[in-house]
Design a protein that fits this description.
Elements: E1 5-7, H1 19-33, H2 45-56, H3 59-64, H4 84-101, E2 103-104, H5 108-123, E3 132-137, E4 144-147, E5 151-155, H6 156-161, H7 165-180, H8 183-201, H9 205-244, H10 250-271, H11 285-291, H12 298-312, E6 319-322, H13 324-337, E7 341-343, E8 353-355, H14 359-366, H15 379-386
Parallel strand pairs: 3-5
Antiparallel strand pairs: 1-6, 2-3, 4-5, 7-8
Helix pairs in contact: 1-8, 1-9, 5-7, 7-9, 7-10, 8-9, 9-12, 10-12
């Protein structure tokens, strides 16, 4: 049995104010407090870069993201109308719906392995809730899903697409970070406040109309900016959690580069759609698109992480990149998805491979529809149609 593969390369380094005003202040204050986290897109590129560098090394950030204080840093604090109990119930309801609509992987070998990695990351994180971990088969897109309240879903495609255990672990750490920082309910709180502000503007007369006009744009933009900042924070927390577990944080950059490659392929496909390039001719198209985007550009995330790795993480001699167990689980998943071919026995004239069929497909072949009848759906299609009125 071989030992875990290690990387030895060191890391680069408000007294008469109306309720409407109070709600407006609550909505604007968090955004103002976090305005330092992401540079304004209407500044020159050089100014943006200076803001990024200054933000990364600011004393405030250095204290908040001190890796030696993981678990006692207050990650997840902030204006939030959801209690931990309500947040857990929200996640529980979402998970129940997820389980009904998603194929779960029940293989004990795969589930035990993924759960062990996840729990190890949780123990080295700022999470204050226990985690329930499940492996799913949701398609070809390698991803994981962190639901509020401590529910983590890992797609088997992520395991197959990862080049090592460190890459898998860092992506899982990113989703665990979203839960630890309570990003989902904090974003929902902002959306609820935006909705309340809009409703109150309807009964506040002419002054309320002015607030509504301003909030109609500023509110959604504030929420989207929070979403982008949350993504940046989850990236930083992910590499910290992975580092605390002994994994190479650089592996997360590899995962993001794969995501960037997928995005580029999709952009090329969209570019083939007639009229697609007309949107790019609109003045300030890039700034408008980025202002209304919920997620930052992947290349910006990569650039930011490269700076954060050398800033927040102490240099370490060895890192875990891969393990025997990861290779075994990945091979096990691949084997389970590969059709099994058998040779016929006792037939010298026909030695071609025979594809093993499932019980459902065998019954369909053994009882074909009559040639003079209309098509009769079988299997899942039949069950679905029988439920129609």
């Amino acid at each position: 049995m071989r030992f875990p593969v290690l990387s030895s390369a060191p890391l680069p380094r408000a007294c008469g104010c109306s309720l409407l005003c109070i709600v407006s202040a609550l909505l604007a204050a968090p955004a103002a407090a976090k305005s330092k986290d992401v540079p304004h897109t209407d500044r020159p590129a050089e100014s943006q870069k200076q803001d990024k560098d200054k933000d990364v090394v600011s004393p405030k950030n250095a204290e908040k993201y001190d890796i030696e204080r993981i678990g006692s840093r207050g990650i997840g604090r902030g204006f939030n109308i959801y209690s931990l109990k309500r947040e857990h119930q929200l996640g529980l309801n979402m998970a129940a719906a997820f389980d009904r609509t998603t194929k779960l992987i029940t293989d004990p070998m795969v589930n035990e392995y993924v759960n062990r990695i996840a729990q190890r990351i949780v123990r080295n994180s700022d999470a204050v809730v226990p985690f329930t971990v499940k492996v799913i088969d949701a398609g070809d897109m390698p991803r994981a899903y962190g639901l509020p309240g401590g529910f983590l879903y890992v797609d088997s495609a992520l395991i197959l697409a990862s080049d090592g255990e460190a890459e898998l672990a860092t992506v899982m750490a990113h989703e665990i970070a979203h839960v630890a920082a309570r990003h989902a309910t904090r974003a929902l709180t902002r959306r609820d406040m935006t909705s309340i502000l809009g409703s109150m503007a309807l009964i506040a007369g002419p002054a309320g109309m002015a607030v509504e006009n301003a909030g109609g744009v500023a509110g959604p933009l504030s929420v989207k900016k929070f979403d982008r900042d949350a993504e940046y924070e989850a990236d930083l927390l992910a590499i910290e959690y992975a580092y605390a577990c002994g994994y190479d944080p650089q592996a997360f950059l590899g995962a993001l580069e794969k995501l960037h490659a997928i995005e580029l392929r999709r952009s090329q496909d969209f570019a083939k759609v007639p009229g697609y390039h007309l949107a790019s001719k609109v003045p300030f198209h890039g700034k408008i698109a980025r202002s209304f985007a919920s997620y930052p550009l992947t290349e910006e995330r990569i650039e930011r992480l490269q700076s954060e790795i050398s800033t927040y993480l102490p240099t370490r001699k060895d890192y875990i990149l891969d393990t025997d167990e990861f290779d075994e689980v990945k091979a096990h998943l691949l084997a389970a998805q590969t059709p099994i071919l058998h040779h016929r026995s006792g037939d010298e004239d026909n030695k071609g491979p025979v594809l093993r069929r499932t019980a459902d497909s065998d019954s369909d072949i053994a009882n074909p529809p009559a040639s003079n009848s209309h098509f009769q759906p079988t299997g899942v299609a039949s069950a679905f149609l029988r439920q129609l009125p």
